[in-house]
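Lecture 7 notes. Example A: sequence first, then its structure tokens.
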Amino acid sequence: QLQLAEPGGALVQLGGSPRPSCAAPGFTLGYNAIAWFCQAPGKEREGVSYISSSGGSTDYADSVKGRFTISRDNAKNTVYLQMNSLKPEDTAVYYCAADSWVTEDEAFFSGEYNYWGQGTQVTVSS
């Protein structure tokens, strides 16, 4: 069974640059599209970024465009979310999700993903 692990969350200062990662030991992530979602206290889970299985297509929520970059290294079986210029409103639990059938049009529909990590907390302090 695919189990996603997301190390890399942190307490960071305003403007910081953590890089959470998504890995699946013993499972080939390369066949799956991967998305990052976030959920802040009292809010619904929302899509942040998406990358296709090949890495050829990416997508970002408007709130993070130009600040976050999603990438994947299929040789290392890992997907990364480089977060730059963090703002207090970026504080949330970040989850990675995987599924082999999700297209870019479905990127931010959480119900399309069958596999989820346990989440990693990113807290931005001012």
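Example B, a different protein, same format:
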Amino acid sequence: QVQLVESGGGLVQAGGSLRLSCAASGRTFSSYSMGWFRQAPGKEREVVAAISWSGASTYYADSVKGRFTISRDNAKNTMYLQMNSLKPEDTAVYYCASRDRPAAGWTTQGSQYPYWGQGTQVTVSS
């Protein structure tokens, strides 16, 4: 059974940093592309960043480009999201998600990720 567990969220002042982690278990982590999504109150879920199964290819939403960095450590079965220069508009619940097709690339479509974590709250105060 695939399990994804996020950690690292919290309350931070604008301009601060946080690093989110997503620990995966239940299958060969290194075979699957993954993504980070977020959902703010009253808003639709949106993709933040995505990374290919090998880590060689990444995607960033325009709103976070240059501030966030996605990475993965396949030896530790863990994906990360380093968030710098945080803004109040980054406040949301952040979710990690995994694809279920081995060696398939990343996608920005949440519907293509069948496995999701429980989410971790990130709150940025002004």
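Note on Example B: The mean pLDDT is 96. The two ends are 40 Å apart (CA to CA).
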